[in-house]
Amino acid sequence: MSKETKASGLSVEEMKIAYSGQAILSNKFYVTVGSVVRITFAEVHFLEESPIFRTAVALSIQDAISLKNVLQDLLKEPEDQIAKVIEAQKKSGGENVGI
């Protein structure tokens, strides 16, 4: 884990659990809400190909809301940085401005 990795109040033991298994690449996801929230993760290699199922998780509504809150907190800073880069690119006429 890099120095830049953020975790939402995880203990050392929880961090060990979080990194004890493999991470599967996913660049597409589907969310359905019923009695539970199901998040299905898939991967697409080329635009003309169908997505390949990777895994799915089902969360209680309460746990899904907790996940939403954690993601909002952890992603606020990177989202703000991306918005600044986009704004700088607009001001510079579309020139490549890195993060």
What does this structure look like?
With 99 residues, the chain is an alpha+beta fold. The chain has helices at 12-18, 61-91, and strands spanning 28-33, 37-43, 52-59. 0% of the residues are buried. The model has no long low-confidence stretch (mean pLDDT 89).
User: Shape, please?
Assistant: extended
Instruction: Please compute the radius of gyration using only Cα atoms.
Output: 17 Å
Tell me the fraction of residues in β-strands, as a range: 15-25%
Class by SSE composition: alpha+beta
Number of E-type strands? 3
Major β-sheet, in short?
Answer: 3 strands, antiparallel
Helix content: 25-40%
Break the fold down into its secondary structure elements and pairings.
Layout: H1 12-18, E1 28-33, E2 37-43, E3 52-59, H2 61-91
Antiparallel strand pairs: 1-2, 2-3
Task: Write a short abstract of this structure.
The chain is 38% helix and 21% strand. With 99 residues, it is α+β, with helices and mostly antiparallel strands. It is extended, with a radius of gyration of 17 Å.
Can you tag this structure with a few keywords?
99 residues, extended, single chain, alpha+beta, three-stranded antiparallel β-sheet
